[in-house]
From TrEMBL:
One of its GO terms (biological process) is phosphatidic acid biosynthetic process. Keywords: Acyltransferase, Membrane, Transferase, Transmembrane, Transmembrane helix. It comes from the Bacteria. One of its GO terms (molecular function) is 1-acylglycerol-3-phosphate O-acyltransferase activity. Pfam families: Acyltransferase (PF01553). Residues 70-184 form the Phospholipid/glycerol acyltransferase domain. It comes from Sulfitobacter marinus. The lineage of its organism: Bacteria, Pseudomonadati, Pseudomonadota, Alphaproteobacteria, Rhodobacterales. Pathway: Lipid metabolism. The chain crosses the membrane at residues 7-31. CDD domains: LPLAT_AGPAT-like (cd07989). This is 1-acyl-sn-glycerol-3-phosphate acyltransferase.
Length: 242
């Protein structure tokens, strides 16, 4: 019962804090891209701090977050992995569904930071548009972050990897950094309960450019899924952080 009360308090404070951060940083963010990034990173740090001190959920980033221009192909389980990845890299730019741009605060800051929005209802056209913008240089330098399964997937649940990741990997000719996670065990995609423990986002060994599409996708999926499953077992056993 006490953990439920803490969880509800955490959700309430997280929700209230978002517009407050957005308004406080708005004058800077309106005229400065750096201001927008500082706002979102500050909010992410606050949420991770609040999670640890209010619900006992410690957020841990493992591996080596990339600093230069790369494609980051990540496992997506909840809003928490978005914040943890964004906080860990200097200039993260998410490929996100277009509907997010209409979300209060998040949408305005996503536009200001030039996040890349696609229409998931037209997947083939979305991939083609991404490739066109890559060629035209509309996707700016930084760490381009794509969720290879296209949506949040609960821990331990199988879902296919979308072809857009392979297309971008091939077209951009950049190193791809896979990212595994177990955060959905602590912060589920649905529901208000927040579980105590160590939520992990782990940057894995980079995949060099130049692999054939099928070989790349096989390596990416096997690497991310195997490590995410291992992190899930670690979370269930309570061994993380000991």
């Amino acid at each position: 019962m006490l953990q439920w009360i803490r969880s509800l308090a955490f959700v309430a404070l997280s929700t209230i804090a978002m517009p407050i951060f957005g308004l406080v940083y708005a004058p800077w963010a309106m005229f400065s891209l750096r201001g927008a990034y500082v706002c979102c990173k500050s909010y992410s740090r606050f949420i991770m701090w609040l999670a640890e001190h209010l619900v006992g959920m410690r957020c841990e980033v493992r591996g080596t977050p990339p600093q230069g221009g790369v494609l980051i192909a990540a496992k997506h389980q909840s809003f928490l992995d978005i914040m943890m990845i964004f906080q860990a890299v200097p200039l993260g730019k998410f490929i996100m569904k277009k509907e997010i741009l209409w979300t209060p605060v998040i949408g305005q800051y996503a536009k200001r930071m030039k996040m890349y929005a696609v229409d998931r209802g037209k997947r083939g056209a979305a991939v083609a548009k991404m490739l066109e913008d890559v060629k035209a240089g509309h996707v700016e330098a930084g760490q381009l972050i794509i969720y290879s399964q296209g949506t949040r997937v609960a821990p331990g649940v199988s879902a296919p990897y979308k072809k857009g990741t392979a297309a971008l990997y091939e077209q951009m000719g950049q190193t791809c950094v896979p990212v595994a996670t177990n955060v959905g065990y602590f912060w589920p995609r649905r529901g208000l309960y927040r579980r105590p423990g160590v939520a992990v986002v782990e940057f894995l060994d980079p995949i060099p450019p130049g692999l054939p599409r099928d070989a790349f996708m096989t390596r990416l999926e096997q690497t991310v899924e195997a490590r995410s499953d291992a992190l899930l077992e670690e979370a269930k056993s309570g061994s993380a952080g000991r």
